[in-house]
Specification:
Blueprint: E1 5-11, H1 14-21, E2 27-35, E3 51-58, H2 65-75, E4 83-84, E5 87-88, E6 94-98, H3 101-117, E7 127-130, E8 134-136, H4 144-147
Parallel strand pairs: 6-7
Antiparallel strand pairs: 1-3, 1-6, 2-3, 2-8, 4-5
Helix pairs in contact: 2-3
Length: 164
């Protein structure tokens, strides 16, 4: 196993994102938490400006950042501003938290591919935000849908085929 990398994505309620990503090839670990907000040490009850997000640990010899983005755009609706399913507000925004210019460029390219696919009725509103810090969510939110298999989620594979 090579050197592992991390990716940071937000696309609505973090429970469903984690549940789907954990099963993908090359994913070694997932953790739900908060990204891009205004306060230190955010909590589920106090995370102003933070997105509910996911830290994905992956093996770049088995998958790529672009492949993660491809899957990300297939499991949530990237065309709804600050909303996924019944969840509304900036906590549920679609965002890619890039760590460097290479990731930013790959994210921009993927957004262009998704828009050109015409799979969605409107254009992608996914935000590109510079990664600053990931704050892990409380233990009760980690692996939530593993512990509660019938729990709430608005995530599912909307398209079988890859954008690539």
């Amino acid at each position: 196993m090579g050197k592992l990398k991390k990716a940071y994505l937000a696309g609505g309620c973090f429970w469903g994102m984690e549940d789907l990503f954990r099963t993908q090839k090359g994913i070694k670990d997932t953790e739900v938490g908060y990204l891009g907000g205004e306060n230190e040490n955010p909590t589920y009850r106090n995370h102003p400006g933070h997105a509910e997000g996911l830290e994905i640990t992956y093996d770049p010899e088995e998958t790529s950042f672009t492949a993660l983005l491809d899957y990300f755009f297939r499991i949530h609706n990237p065309t709804t501003l600050d909303r996924q399913g019944n969840d509304m507000g900036s906590s549920y925004r679609s965002a890619i938290f890039f760590q460097n210019e290479i990731e930013k460029k790959e994210a921009e390219e993927m957004i262009n591919i998704v828009n050109a696919s015409n799979k969605w009725d409107t254009k992608v509103v996914t935000r590109l935000e510079s990664f600053e810090k990931f704050w892990p969510a409380e233990p009760e939110h980690q692996d939530y849908l593993v512990r509660y298999p019938n729990g709430y989620t608005c995530h599912f594979e909307r398209f079988d085929e890859s954008y690539l």
